[in-house]
Amino acid sequence: MDTAVIVLRVALSLGVVLALMWVLQRVSRKKLSGSATRGRRSASVEVVGRQSIGGKASVVVVDVEGERLVLGVSEHGVALLTSGQAPAPELTIVTGPVTLPVRPTPSAERFGQELAQQTAADPSLPSDAAQPLPMRPRNRRPQRAALPTAQQLQGSILSADTWRQAASALRNRRAG
Fold it and tell me: Closest by alpha carbon to 159, among 168, 148, 169, 170?
């Protein structure tokens, strides 16, 4: 009874701590993101394209708030190569009905014919394949049925003699 109460109290305490950590993480994330954009507009940056021109050098085309920038990027820094007005997105205005391409659907008669062909065909599996194959585990050594003997355990941490020797050595050290 006491053990169940203790386990329940520990689980409840752990749940409270985890919930508190979650709430603190959410609050800190909101404060950090709110302070970064407070007082200024958040700029939308879109990478249009990137082309590598060497080992660690590349040219990047970026759209920032309606302006297109061509940047040279290397391991030493970023340099503005040129800038200009970003092109307006191409829009297609549809004024009439739109017809989509349609695949021809197979007819029910054709489906019935193919189904009859498949059911009339002879099975390609041999008759003995219907019997299940014997299953055996892979990469498993046979398990030992017998327990190890005292001679096999001699000198290991599992041996009772090893523990007796350790206890006697500690007793001798204290007495001396």
Answer: 148
Rounded Cα gap, residues 67 and 50, in angstroms? 17
Beta strand pairing status for 58-64 and 45-52? antiparallel
- Which uninterrupted H or E stretch holds 74? strand 67-74
pLDDT in tens, 101-119: 777 777 888 888 888 888 8
Helix (H) / strand (E) element for 26: namely helix 2-37
The two tokens of residue 111 are 């489906």
- The HSE-up count of residue 10 (CA atoms within 13 Å, CB side) is 6
- The number of angstroms, rounded, from the C-alpha of 116 to the middle of its chain's C-alpha atoms is 46
CA 31, 32, 33: angle at the middle one, nearest 5?
A: 95
pTM: 0.32
What's phi and psi for 162, nearest 5 deg? -60, -40
pLDDT of 41-60, one tens digit each?
Answer: 666 888 989 999 988 899 99
DSSP character at residue 161: H
Residue indicated by tokens 């009339």: 120
Query: What's the chain's average pLDDT?
Result: 80
